[in-house]
Amino acid sequence: xxxxxAVIDGHKISGTAIAxxxxxxxxxxxxxxxxxxxxxxxxxxDVSFTVKKGRIVGIVGESGCGKSMTALxxxxxxxxxxxxxxxxxxxxxxxxxxNLTEKEMCQVxxxxxxxxxxxxxxxxxxxxxxxKQVMEAAILHQQLGKAEAKEKALEMFKLVGIPEPQKRLDTxxxxxxxxxxxxxxxxxxxxxxxxxxxxxxxxxxxxxxxQAQILQLMKKLQAELDSAIVLITHDMGVVAEVCDDVxxxxxxxxxxxxxxxxxxxxCLHPYTxxxxxxxxxxxxxxxxxxxIPGMLPNLLQLPKGCRFFPRCESASAICAxxxxxxxxxxxxxxxxxLKYRG
Amino acid sequence: xxxxxxxxxxxxxxxxxxxxxLSKQKNIVKxxxxxxxxxxxHETLALVGESGCGKSTLARxxxxxxxPTEGEVLYKGENIFNLRAEAAKQFKKQVQFIFQDPYACLxxxxxxxxxxxxxxxxxxxxxxxxxxxxxxxxxxxxxxRQEFMNRYPHQFSGGQRQRIGIARALALNPELLICDExxxxxxxxxxxxxxxxxxDLQAQFGLTYFFISHNLSVVRYMADRVCVMFxxxxxxxxxxxxxxxxxxxxxxxxxxxxxxxxxPKLRNRARLLLEGEVPSPMNPPPGCRFHxxxxxxxxxxxxxxxxxxxxxGRKCACHFSLT
Lengths: 342, 323
Prior knowledge:
The structure holds two protein chains of two kinds.
Chain A: H1 2-18, E1 23-36, E2 39-52, E3 56-60, H2 67-75, E4 83-92, E5 95-96, H3 102-108, E6 113-116, H4 120-123, H5 130-142, H6 146-159, H7 165-168, H8 178-190, E7 196-200, H9 208-225, E8 228-233, H10 236-242, E9 245-250, E10 253-259, H11 260-265, H12 270-277, E11 326-328, E12 334-336
Parallel strand pairs in A: 3-8, 3-9, 6-7, 7-8
Antiparallel strand pairs in A: 1-2, 1-4, 4-5, 9-10, 10-12, 11-12
Helix pairs in contact in A: 5-6, 5-8, 6-8, 8-9
Chain B: E1 4-17, E2 27-40, E3 44-48, H1 55-62, E4 70-75, E5 78-79, H2 85-94, E6 95-98, H3 112-122, H4 128-141, H5 158-170, E7 176-180, H6 188-205, E8 208-212, H7 216-222, E9 225-230, E10 233-239, H8 240-245, H9 250-258, H10 299-303, E11 309-311, E12 314-316
Parallel strand pairs in B: 3-8, 3-9, 6-7, 7-8
Antiparallel strand pairs in B: 1-2, 1-4, 4-5, 9-10, 10-12, 11-12
C-alpha cells in the first residue's frame, strides 16, 4: 500500500511538473465511494488527471467503470447520502472544489464550470421555453437584467449555430429535434463562458450525421473560447476525432493515460487493446470480431490483484496476487499493468 | 442470389395527424412511402438511416405488427396481410424479432425459463419438462449457463439479457429474424460478443437477418446487402461492399463521412458534412426529398422525384448519382 501511495505521489509530482499556469483542472487521487448496505463500492478509486487550457481530455470506459461518477464528483453532484468523496482534491484554476460548501459550489457550477448531459430531453425543463432556460444562467451568475440576458441568450444561440435563433428562443424543448436540443444545452452550458466544460456522452443519443455536427461545433467553440473540456464517452471513434489526451478507466481505476496519438499508436494496457480490437471498423476483413472475455467485476467483490486480471489474456500468476500501480513509461504515458513495472 | 424469402411491393404507411377534433389542419406523415424491398434467404440485409426515416415502421410492417396504408408484403409468395388463421400462425412462428433495449424487452416478473419458453407455450409446442429441455438447449446455444434458468432478468447484465432475447427469438426455429438495433444499447466489448453470436447462429441455422442499425461499422461487419432509407424512401440499395467502397447516392456518402473513425491521424481528413437536420416527415419537400440538404442540388431535383433506378445490380434514387 505504501508503494502505491508513493507512486501516486510520484504521479502528483509529474502532474504538477506539467501543471504550469495553463492548467485549468487538476484532479489528484480522487476517491468517490458509495456506502451501501451490502458494502462499500469504490466507484471512483484514486483517479488523477489534469486538463490544460484549450485541451479536450477524454475519459473512456464501459458502463460501470466510474466515468460518469468522476464527472459528477467534479461537479459536486455525487448522489448523497450514499455517495461521498472520501479522498483527493479537485483543483479548478487554483481553487480546491472538494472543500467548498454547497452554497459556494453553486457559484462555481454553471458559472466557472458546467456540464452537458447525454440525453438533452431529460435535462431540459419541458414547461419553460428554451430561451428562458438559457437566460436563467446569465441572470443568476452574471446578474444581468432580463433584456440583457435575452440578448445574451440570442448571442449564444447564434454561436452554437441554431438556425433562426430569434424564433427559437420562444420554443419549448419538445418542439426541437435532438440535435437542436443538444445545441441548446451547449448554449446554456457556455453562457457564462465557463473555464471548464464537462460533456457526459454528449452525442450518444444522436444520429451519426448530427453527432458529427455537434463534435465539430464543440471543437470550434473550444478553439474560439479557449476553454478546457472533459469529454466522457465510450466511443473510441469519438475520442479519435476530438480528444487531445485520453484516460481509460476500468472498474473505478485509471488503467491507461496518454496523448491520443500515442494511445492509438502504442496502447499498452490489454484492456485498451481489447477495446480497440473489439471495434468493427469500416474496413471489412470478414474475420470474427475480437471480444474481451467475461464481464466487468462486481465492485463489491473486487478480485485481489489486478482488477482486469480475470479477463486478461496476457495475465500471469502474479496478476492475481499483486495490484499493479500506475507507472509512467515515458512522455506522460501512464499504464497500470504489471508488465510495465519498469 | 437465392430464393426471395420476403418481399414488399409498393409498401406505404401513412400516419394521419388530424390535430385534434376541433382542428381543421390535417397532416400526413409518410413514414414508409412506396418501398420495394426483397430479402433473400440466408442473407443479411441491413437497413440504415437517421432516426425518423421509417426504419422501425418498415420492420413492423414486415411482420404484420402494423397494417399498411397501401401495398403488400409477400412472404414466400403469399401476402401476409390476408393470411388465414392457420397460415398466419405459421408466419408468426417463422418470423421473430430481436429488440433494441434488453432492459425494456424482458418482463421483470418472469423467470428466464418462462421468458425463453413463452413462445413455446403460446404456440402449444411444449410444456413442463419438454419446455425446460428446449430452454436448456436454447440457453446453451446463445452462451448462457443453464443453471441460470430460474433467475430473473435483473440478475443479468445487458449482454446476457440480449442473449436471453436472442434465445427467445430462436425458440420457434424461425427463418427470418428482424434485429432492430440489437447492439446499440451495449458496450463495445459486449457488442462484439453479440455480433459474433448472431453470425454463428446464422451459419448454424441458415437464418435470414433483416438488420436495422445506425452504426455503419456494425452494418459493414454484418451485412451482405445494405438498404439506405431517407424520409420513408429507399434511396440506395445494393451489395454491402460496393456501397461502402463507392456510394452512389449523395446521402449515403454523407452518412459514411459522418461516422467517426477510430484513428486520430485521420481527424483532419477532408470530408463533407451534412448541414441541418432531417426534414420533418410531415409534409416532406416536393421533388427529391433530400434536395433541401443536398449540395449537388439542381433545378430538376426540386420538381421531379427521382425513381429508384438500376445501376448494374445496385439501385439508387438520384437524378445525378455519384458515378
